[in-house]
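Hi R.,

Here's the chain you asked about this morning:
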Amino acid sequence: MSSTREVRRSWRSWLVELIGWPMPLLHFDTAVVDRWLWLRRRLPRVTGMERLIDIGCGTGAFTIGAALRGYEAIGLSWDDRNQSVAVTRAAFCKAQSASFEVLDVRHLDTRLDLTGKFEVAIMCEVIEHILDDGKLVRDAAACLRPGGRLLLTTPNAHLRAIDPIHDGPFSTVEDGGHVRKGYTEVDLRRLGTDAGLVVDTISYCTGPVSQLVTWIHFNLSKRLGPLAGWLAIHPLRPLPIVLDPVLAKITRWPLYSICLEAHKPPSRETRYHDAVA
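And the predicted structure, written out as tokens:
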């Protein structure tokens, strides 16, 4: 089994080395691409003066993407394997301003050196794995400078399950699976407000076509292996981008992820200096 994993890693790393960005993104299903497209619209290109933290970055695709848009981006993953893969892929993609560290995000508050240092925090499909989600959102908010933005995605409470496990039963311990089905708009507004943030917008991503393609990916991966699932959906990847904006409006099929944009209010000192200026 371990040798199979090593072959798969080598194959994926070879593709990243050959193609570069956006290959790290395309290792995954279309729902992951949807989240990046949602993020990218909210991450204007910058000149390297803005810092971004990717909380729960996995193998670093979004961290790398942000770095290539000019951000000094740090990704936090929970294990050495993810960190190693992320570092390798960032090098292949020439994302020089991306860096990665191993940190259990449940203990983000212990990293005082990260407090108040970032213009942007992103947290994609993380809080549904964490029992004390309120603490994690507060800890993410603490990493922001005044005026800094939190960009968060998580499953929609009204989703129709792509995989049966998305309907539960959900774990009562943090074992890597989902501990809840998802969130409503009310839930996200409460989490943001309780963290001291101003909620700007609630939106959604991953429409019905993307969900269908992701369903194909999941099922073929289970039956025939991840490579078969990846190859099967690769020709289908353009379909969600083209069709979902239309079908999401004319069908009642719930979008898979609910998305939060919020910002940290300026401090009193900042407001005073702005008023004087």
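Confidence is low (pLDDT under 50) at residues 1-8, 272-277.

Let me know if you need anything else.
M.
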